[in-house]
Write a structure and sequence with these properties.
The protein has 2 domains: 171 residues, Flavin prenyltransferase-like (Rossmann fold); 210 residues, 3-Layer(aba) Sandwich (Rossmann fold), CATH 3.40.50. It is 34% helix and 24% strand. An 8-stranded mixed beta sheet has the order 12-11-8-13-16-17-18-19, with helices on both faces. Strands 2-1-3-4-5 form a 5-stranded parallel beta sheet, with helices on both faces. α12 links the parallel β16 and β17. The longest helix has 22 residues. Bound molecules: ligand PMT. The site of ligand PMT has 27 residues, from α9, α11 and β16.
Length: 400
């Protein structure tokens, strides 16, 4: 059940057809216990009336930058200070562009410049407009400024097109808003997670790698963050995206991943090594593209640093969790890695089933127990894994 008790949400509505969903969104916020105030652009009043929004929110709707009824005629500053969260839904392409460029020529853009509260946007526009390079670069600018992105969703559009661009459903936006305030069961814990493959250069255009998609690591990062943890994700090159709440460090090679992890590990309570790190890298990557001259080509490899082993050997080490994807003797090999790498816990899984799949099953193994995790999608399994991590960590702390 959604809980937003006494949270002050300022809903900014810009002028798009999806504005009609703001009635339902406001109803969900109010039902969850939030105080809601609404600010609308002139264009948005063509799609939903201020009177409707006033009736649903229980508050007068702000429409103008200069508000004669507000104290000191500075309505935008009062609202900007009042809000715990500013949510712009729908956020049109024009609104996103003006905000990305720091404009303050109407009430909503001025509010955003003035506030110190978190700002979330729920984009809504035609799929072509969403895919346009300028829109994408504007969205990127806002994300870099720390704006949260709720959606957009994919599907049928009011204009008849099908694609990415429709506003996320009110329940999804309300849930994401609530999760920003939800301290959660992992609140106060810092997670450091590695994910994805590493790429090891052979020459400037070639590399060796593996089939890791990053899905498992990103699921763990998203679920830990949704449960209130602060998460840093060190990721090899993948096509999945993490939630905006996660601080992500992108790397390419095992050596870069090692360096990034070692820089962050001091503040981690829990380290989870999900990445499929290359054990070896070409000893002498060619400076120029290797030409097809010889009949045979021999590459020499050198060992990469073992990231998780190095984490497990530092003083004041975090709780260290590994993964082992094995093609045979899954449990035996998992146990061997648990011991040799001095891990607190390992999730052994079947490599032929888990790489790049949406589904995973695993065996959780620690020095004193084994537990089977039945097949499920990576997000539901991630929640189960996080529960096991907390249980084993608690037992370890109690016996220390
Ligand atoms: O990314 P997905 O497509 O979702 O797939 C998920 C997964 C199969 C990658 C994941 O479930 C998994 O099992 N990851 C570990 C892959 C593996 O077999 O790692 P390993 O056996 O080479 O290493 C064991 C542990 O040591 C792992 O925690 C690994 O991150 C770590 N390691 C390994 C080598 C190295 N140089 N440094 C490390 O930290």
């Amino acid at each position: 059940m959604l809980s937003l008790t006494n949270k002050r949400i300022l809903l900014g509505i810009s002028g798009g057809i999806a504005a009609y969903k703001c009635g339902e969104l406001t109803r969900l916020f109010v039902k969850a216990g939030a105080q809601v105030r609404v600010a609308m652009t002139k264009a948005s009043t063509e799609f939903i009336t201020p009177l409707t929004m006033q009736a649903l929110s229980g508050n007068r709707v702000a429409l103008d930058l200069l508000d004669h009824e507000a104290e000191g005629a500075m309505g935008h500053i009062e609202l900007a200070r009042w809000a715990d969260l500013i949510l712009i839904a729908p956020a049109t392409a024009d609104f996103i562009s003006r905000t990305a460029h720091g404009n303050a020529n109407d009430l909503l853009t001025a509010l955003i410049l003035a506030t110190s509260a978190p700002v979330a946007i729920a984009p809504a526009m035609n799929q072509g407009m969403w895919g346009d390079k300028t829109t994408q670069s504007n969205v990127k600018k806002l994300e870099e400024k720390g704006f949260l992105l709720f959606g957009p969703a994919e599907g049928d559009q009011a204009c008849g097109d099908v694609g990415i661009g429709r506003m996320a459903e009110p329940i999804e936006i309300a849930t994401k808003s609530a999760s920003l305030f939800d301290k959660g069961s992992l609140a106060g814990l810092n997670f450091l997670i590695t994910g994805g493959p590493t790429l090891e250069a052979i020459d400037p255009v070639r590399f060796i790698t593996n089939h890791s998609s990053g899905k498992m690591a990103y699921a763990l990062a998203d679920e830990a963050s949704a449960a209130g943890a602060k998460v840093t994700l060190v990721s090899g090159p993948v096509n999945v995206r993490a939630s905006n709440l996660i601080s992500q460090i992108d790397v390419t090679s095992a050596c870069q991943m090692h360096e990034a992890v070692m820089e962050c590990v001091a503040s981690a309570d829990i380290f989870i090594g999900v990445a499929a790190v290359a054990d070896y890298r070409p000893a002498f990557p060619a400076k120029q593209k290797i030409k097809k001259v010889e009949e045979e080509l021999t590459l020499r490899f050198v060992k990469n640093p073992d990231i998780i082993s190095d984490v497990a050997s530092i003083e004041n080490k975090p709780f260290v969790v590994g993964f082992a994807a094995e093609t045979n003797s899954v449990i035996e090999n998992g146990k061997r890695k648990l011991d040799s790498k001095k891990l607190d816990l390992i999730f052994a899984n079947n490599a032929t089933e888990t790489f790049d799949s949406d589904v995973i099953s695993a065996i959780a193994i620690s020095s004193h127990f084994e537990q089977e995790i039945l097949p499920g999608n990576k997000n539901s399994v991630a929640r189960e894994m996080l529960q096991i991590i907390c249980d084993v960590m608690e037992k370890k702390n109690n016996t220390a």
